[in-house]
């Protein structure tokens, strides 16, 4: 019984962590912006793969938010 209770507590603690925000960027090495939506107008000229990554990682690359995003 004690083990079951511990497992339930661990499950709830790990299940309700805040999810890391995901953003999109053009996979080319010259990308300068990240996008909140995969359908953003700013990605329409991307000739590479569109990559989904974390906001922290995009900002770590020095990328800034696309001007087309609200």
User: How many separate domains make up the residues?
Assistant: 1
Largest sheet entry: 2 strands, antiparallel
What share of the residues lie within helices? Answer: 25-40%
**Assembly annotation:** single chain
- Using only C-alpha atoms, the radius of gyration works out to 18 Å
Task: Indicate the proportion of strand residues.
Answer: 15-25%
Ranges with pLDDT <50 over ≥5 residues? Answer: none
What general form does the structure show?
A: elongated
| Strand adjacency order, main sheet | 1-3
Mean pLDDT: 86
Count of helices? 2
Listing every helix as H and every strand as E from the N terminus to the C terminus, the arrangement reads HEEEHE
**CA(first)-CA(last) distance:** 51 Å
- Per DSSP E runs of 2 or more residues, the count of β-strands stands at 4
Class by helix and strand content?
alpha+beta
Topology:
Elements: H1 2-15, E1 22-26, E2 33-34, E3 50-54, H2 55-60, E4 64-65
Parallel strand pairs: 2-4
Antiparallel strand pairs: 1-3
What does this structure look like?
The chain has 70 residues and is an alpha+beta fold. Helix content is 29%, strand content 20%. It contains 2 helices and 4 strands.
């Amino acid at each position: 019984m004690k083990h079951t209770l511990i497992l339930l507590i661990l499950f709830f603690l790990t299940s309700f962590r805040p999810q890391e925000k995901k953003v999109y960027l053009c996979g080319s090495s010259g990308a300068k912006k990240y996008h909140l939506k995969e359908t953003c107008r700013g990605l329409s000229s991307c000739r590479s793969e569109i990559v989904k990554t974390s906001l922290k990682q995009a900002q770590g690359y020095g990328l800034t938010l696309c001007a087309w995003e609200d």
